[in-house]
């Protein structure tokens, strides 16, 4: 992320960079503009503290950074001499303009980023008040997720289409199976180490480190266990407890590097595998979470249990992944027989 601006460009501070996370979370760079550094003698440091000290999730940090960058480069505030000159009308006008350019969830995220930043600067004594506090974002209620998912037969076809001759092929199959059978988010999946495959009282468990530092454990489906065993038997790092479970490969050699497979690598892999399997839907990492939850519910699993397995704090979130009504809706539409 870059804060370069034409206004006061001769008074930029030193560039400060925050690195990417091991699981593929984005890194970004700040070039603090004069509107920040001219506000208060500690403004630059307090500004960086908001991102570096108060936001632990790297992906959230990057998203908030882009949101703040968008606001500070907006023509309505780029010419102001100080952050203390920002008024609720500036924020309201910016949000109104965003509503015409990006989706409602993106607008709400940008407003949340500004509220959080200004709150921090108020508590730090840099600003006297929060100009974003009174600004309301767009109304947005989600009752159905947008992420494309696969049916059970499509998922089976995808897994069966992956050859099993090389360690990379076995890795890809095991990762897709893990996200499907355990409802794992991709960051939690690629963030696993070998020791996160736990054997307790004769049972196999998977340990996932989820958002906000939550550690989530659940039994391993027997099909998933078969895929993981096949991968680890050939990969050869089963006895390296601290080694990344899913590792990147070295070019066309197919040899594992010992480095962690990133979520971006996972997305590229899934797109390639989907095309090869003849999957038309533009699926991605998150598709398998929805596929697993919907398949579980179709087979008479309860919403409460799905919520617990997915580690959701609210059943409303779990319902977003429930696509059982998609089929009902299609059946109803086909009853409109004109010809």
CATH evolutionary superfamily of the largest domain: Intergrase catalytic core
Instruction: Strand order, main sheet: write it out.
Output: 3-4-5
Task: Give me the CATH fold name of the largest domain.
Answer: hpI Integrase, Chain A
How is the main sheet built? Answer: 3 strands, antiparallel
Question: Strand-residue fraction?
Answer: 5-15%
What are the segments in which pLDDT stays under 50 over at least 5 consecutive residues? 1-14
* Count of DSSP strands: 7
CATH class of the largest domain: Mainly Alpha
**How would the global form be characterised?**
globular
Protein model, in words:
This protein has 339 residues and is mainly alpha-helical. The chain has 2 domains: 9-123, no CATH class; 152-333, Intergrase catalytic core (hpI Integrase, Chain A, Orthogonal Bundle), CATH 1.10.443. 46% of the residues lie in helices and 9% in strands. It is built from 14 helices and 7 strands. Strands 3-4-5 form a 3-stranded antiparallel sheet, with no helix packed on it. Strands 1-2 form a two-stranded antiparallel ribbon. α2 (43-53) crosses α5 (104-123), α7 (167-181) runs antiparallel to α9 and α7 (167-181) packs across α11 (287-298). The chain is globular. It starts with 15 loop residues before the first strand and ends in a 5-residue tail after the last helix. Residues 1-14 have low confidence and may be disordered.
């Amino acid at each position: 992320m870059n804060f370069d601006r034409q206004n006061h460009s001769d008074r930029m501070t030193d560039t400060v960079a925050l690195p990417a996370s091991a699981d593929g979370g984005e890194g970004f760079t700040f070039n603090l503009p004069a509107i920040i550094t001219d506000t208060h003698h500690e403004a630059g440091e307090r500004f960086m503290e908001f991102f570096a000290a108060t936001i632990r999730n790297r992906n959230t940090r990057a998203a908030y950074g882009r949101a703040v960058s968008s606001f500070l480069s907006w023509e309505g505030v780029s010419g102001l001499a100080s952050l203390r000159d920002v008024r609720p009308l500036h924020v309201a006008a910016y949000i109104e303009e965003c509503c015409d350019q990006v989706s409602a969830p993106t607008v709400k995220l940008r407003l949340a980023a500004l509220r959080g930043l200004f709150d921090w600067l108020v508590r730090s004594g840099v600003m006297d008040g929060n100009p974003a506090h009174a600004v309301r974002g767009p109304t947005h209620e989600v009752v159905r997720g947008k992420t494309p998912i696969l049916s059970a037969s499509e998922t089976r076809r995808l897994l069966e289409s992956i050859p099993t001759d090389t360690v990379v092929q076995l890795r890809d199959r095991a990762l897709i199976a893990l996200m499907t059978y355990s409802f794992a988010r991709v960051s939690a999946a690629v963030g696993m180490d070998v020791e996160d495959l736990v054997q307790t009282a004769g049972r196999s468990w998977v340990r996932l480190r989820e958002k906000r530092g939550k550690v989530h454990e659940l039994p391993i489906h027997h099909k998933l266990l078969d895929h993981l065993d096949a991968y680890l038997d050939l990969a050869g790092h089963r006895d390296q407890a601290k080694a990344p479970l899913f590792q990147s490969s070295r070019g066309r050699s197919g040899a594992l590097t010992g480095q962690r497979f990133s979520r971006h690598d996972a997305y590229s892999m899934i797109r390639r595998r989907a095309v090869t399997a003849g999957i038309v839907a533009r699926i991605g990492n998150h598709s398998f979470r929805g596929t697993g939850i919907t398949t579980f519910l179709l087979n008479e699993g309860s919403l409460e249990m799905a919520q617990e397995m997915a580690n959701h704090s609210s059943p409303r979130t779990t319902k977003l992944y429930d696509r059982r009504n998609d089929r009902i809706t299609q059946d109803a539409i086909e009853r409109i027989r004109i010809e």
